Amino acid sequence: MSVELPLWRALAGYRVLTMAYAVLIFVYNMERYERPWVAGCYLAVLAVWTLATLPRVLGAAARCTKRFLGADLTVALAGIMLTLVADADAQRIDSPTLPSIWTAGAVLAFALRGGWRWAAFASSLVAAANLVQRGEPSGDTIHNVLLVWIASIAIGYVVEVARASERTLARALEIEAATRERERLARDIHDSVLQVLAMVQRRGTALGGEAAELGRMAGEQEIALRALVSSGPVPASAGASRADGSPEPGSGPEEDGADQGPCDLRPLLARYAGPRVTLSGPGAPVPLPPAAARELAAAVGAALDNVERHAGPGARAWILVEDWTDDVIVTVRDDGPGIPEGRLAQAEGEGRLGVALSIRGRLRELGGTAELVSVPGQGTEVELRVPRSAPEPPGRAPRA
User: By three-state DSSP, how is residue 274 classified?
Assistant: First the structure.
């Protein structure tokens, strides 16, 4: 109803103004009517009907039923035919009908309610009534009839197009919401389940025996899950929960951060520091919105996971935090073998979405950017840039 509501409000105003116009014409030409009491009674009914049905018209299509539209059109047609009874010279070219241009409002209601087909039906009845009332229709009469007929059909067609566009937009928004939720869940899965399955596969293969068979099965499940995450539809959910009904990490009120002030990014990154990971940053706090800080820290964690998996167990990594006026920049650099050209595109095609979703996807939702530079034999550098006023990411942000 967001598209149609302004049209119904405009129609309500049109009905009131044209009703007043019809009454003024009658008052101005009262002496010309042979039976002015007939015209007066009809216009009184018209005024009461217009004002009484004003809330219904303002209620738009939900209250303008077929029965109401039929009664409204009957009032208009009755006024056209009663013009012959009230005015002996009603067939003059310059003689208006009793409802005058109010009749067009009844036709437009059909157009707004049912589209161009309903408009064609209502305007055809009005055209027939006008032709009968005039007897021998003049060129002006035919011109006015055609104008109402064409205009009402055109408005009805525009309303149908607007409804179709609104449905398309609503569907596009649903698809976008489902896609964003699927990407968020894919990041969660990549950060947890897929990492565990990959570790089980590597450890099982290294141990051999029954553990090797377990590792093989874990590898098959990892491939299947990656394919599902990368292509399967995931419906948008109102909230995340485990199978036992307990909330997911990061979904409780203490993790939401909606009512908290800016969060210092440094403690969230400090958990990654260790013998092979060096953290460097400013001595003062690096404030960010809580959800944005957690998402940025999670992206850093995903980058370090890639270092551990692809650069080898002996690779070192460095995290550098830069606090600028408008942006916060976190750089993750390693001394591994680097990424061969075309490897990232190949990984995305195989359903390995660590960089695409866990890193770039997170930064995109924060209004930031993620740039990856890698030279074979010289390591890899990932620069994560987040604006100071980063928007809250949609859905619940997972814990870093």
Answer: strand
CB atoms within 10 A of CB 398: 23
Measure CA 310 to chain center: 39
Which residue, among 183, 297, 294, has the nearest Cα to 232 in the 3D structure?
183
Give how far the C-alpha of residue 46 lies from the chain's centroid of Cα atoms, to the nearest Å: 42
Give 189's pLDDT tier (boundaries 50, 70, 90). Answer: low
Question: What pLDDT is attached to residue 319?
Answer: 92
- The alpha helices in the chain, defined as continuous H runs, are 5-28, 36-52, 54-58, 66-86, 102-114, 116-134, 139-191, 193-207, 210-231, 253-256, 265-270, 290-310, 343-349, 362-365
Beta bridge partners of 187: none
Query: Is 0.90 surpassed by the pTM of this model?
Result: no
Residues 269, 279 contacting (CB under 8 angstroms)? yes
222 burial level (CB within 10 Å; 0-12, 13-18, 19+): buried
- Closest to 270 in 3D by CA, of 238, 293, 245, 244: 293
- Report, in angstroms and rounded to the nearest whole number, the Rg of the chain calculated over CA atoms: 36
Inter-CA distances, 289 with 256, 273, 285, 360, 383, Å: 11, 22, 13, 19, 19
Full strand arrangement of the beta sheet holding 369-374: 277-280, 317-323, 327-334, 380-387, 369-374
DSSP 262: -
Q: What are the tens digits of pLDDT across the range 41-54?
A: 999 999 999 999 98
Distance of CA 54 to the CA centre of its chain: 32
pLDDT of residue 257: 43
Q: What is the pLDDT of residues 134-167, one digit of tens each?
A: 776 666 667 777 888 888 888 888 888 888 888 8
